[in-house]
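Entry 14. Structure prediction run on the chain below.
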Amino acid sequence: MYRDQTVAVVMPVHNEEAHIEQAIQKVPAFVDLIIAVDDGSTDHTWEVLSRVTDNRLTTLRHDRNRGVGAATKTGYLYCLNAPADLIAVMDGDGQMDGRDLSRLLERALKGVEYVKGNRFLDPSIGSMPCLRYIGHLLFSGLARRAASFNHKLDSHCGYTVIQHQALSRLHLEELYDRYGFPTEMFFAACRAGLAVESVPVRTVYGDEVSGISPFIVVPAIFFLIARNYFRGRFSAALWKRRQPCLRGGAREKDRQGSLPSQGYQLET
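Output returned:
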């Protein structure tokens, strides 16, 4: 428990037999519940999870690999039915420092509904490989533009905290299942009107080797960004088309004396 709030950590896992136990050990003691979701691992990840003795741990398993987004959503759905006020995501590869979790929680306790970690705000960003740095910077800039988000952003960072009530307002079943889910989740939070802010988190790299092909990942993230951009523009265009009709209808009802005009004033 953290400042009288129950805290859950969702941990999506795929083929992390060498890192999952250490990742669980990094979860701070104040966390009440850890939900590790094995996303159809083909190594010994499930066996390692079965040997972990942490009483906070609940293990869930997909019968096949469905993607990191699907695994995260499985954990989120579990938390919606659990006593968890604040729900964090920490990956199973150990690349998220548990010491940073309190920063995210503090911001959530101040009223921010969805808090994202931002590696660009921490001096340790210097340890990120150059090509990854450039890629993350590019995608974060595009995501900010697509969401009309005017604050600093590390769109692909999956270290997050969301309030329980805010999570319940999202349509999780509509979100992308695979790599790129943190960007998709950010867009969903913005569309839902959640208060979104970033806090500094450490950049952590160890001996883990990514099994993700850039030839798959890069087009997928571009697609997610473009889809949200055009979805936002379509919604704005539709609203502009409706405004004259709404205002005209209001004026007509005013003339008829059926409703006061202030009942139809639009927020700007």
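The chain has one domain: 7-229.
Filed with the rest of this week's runs.
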